[in-house]
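> forwarded from #structure-qc
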């Protein structure tokens, strides 16, 4: 089936590298894919208390490191009538394992892509994807605090500037990702850069759903 990113990109999805398009076209019933590789991770110092506070809900984290073992799991499914895709990232530092979950939802009624970060989706954001030379580039737009179907809009000063670039390297036969998270006041929050290979695996889809239900979406 068509994935949430293909729906958001429309005809521009044809400009993606075929391997990137395949990676992001995963839809309900298409199974589970798992990528494994290594990441270089940096983080700022001014937001360390907030980063520590996010770890219990599987959002961002305070660790940094070079050549960190990394795994990313993706699966598509239906969530309260919306097509959705879980992306579960796992970073294995020395003696510490951190998880960063997100659920990307296609809002068909308003023709937009939404991302819910962390277990239960306490932060929601609009996503704006585009294609550059076969690379998928995704930037964050409006953001909300989310709890039990209620949304509180975040002002620009408190919101995060997020950009993710995902490309495929035919020579190395692997994917390359660069993700950066910054804030107008705090500056650099977190970034990770690295590469991975991907394959299909048999996983329990129900255990890959960080959000149990989604009765409402943010205001358009």
């Amino acid at each position: 089936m068509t994935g949430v990113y293909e729906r958001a990109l429309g005809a521009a999805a044809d400009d993606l590298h075929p391997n990137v398009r395949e990676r992001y076209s995963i839809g309900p019933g298409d199974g589970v894919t798992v990528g494994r590789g290594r990441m270089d991770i940096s983080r700022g110092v001014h937001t360390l208390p907030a980063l520590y506070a996010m770890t219990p809900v599987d959002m961002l984290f305070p660790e940094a490191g070079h050549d960190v073992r990394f795994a990313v799991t993706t699966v598509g499914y239906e969530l309260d009538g919306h097509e959705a895709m879980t992306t579960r990232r796992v970073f294995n530092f020395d003696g510490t394992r951190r998880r960063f979950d997100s659920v990307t939802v296609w809002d068909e009624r308003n023709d937009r892509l939404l991302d819910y970060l962390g277990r239960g989706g306490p932060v929601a954001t609009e996503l704006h994807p585009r294609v550059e030379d076969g690379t998928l580039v995704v930037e964050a737009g409006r953001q909300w605090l989310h709890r039990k179907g209620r949304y509180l809009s975040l002002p620009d000063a408190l919101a995060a500037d997020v950009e993710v670039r995902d490309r495929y390297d035919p020579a190395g036969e692997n994917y390359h990702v660069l993700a950066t998270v910054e804030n107008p006041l705090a500056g650099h929050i977190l970034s990770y850069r690295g590469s991975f290979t991907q394959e299909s695996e048999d996983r329990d889809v129900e255990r890959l759903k960080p959000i149990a239900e989604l009765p409402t979406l943010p205001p358009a």
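QC bot note: Residues 84 and 105 are 4 Å apart (CA to CA). The longest strand covers residues 65-79.
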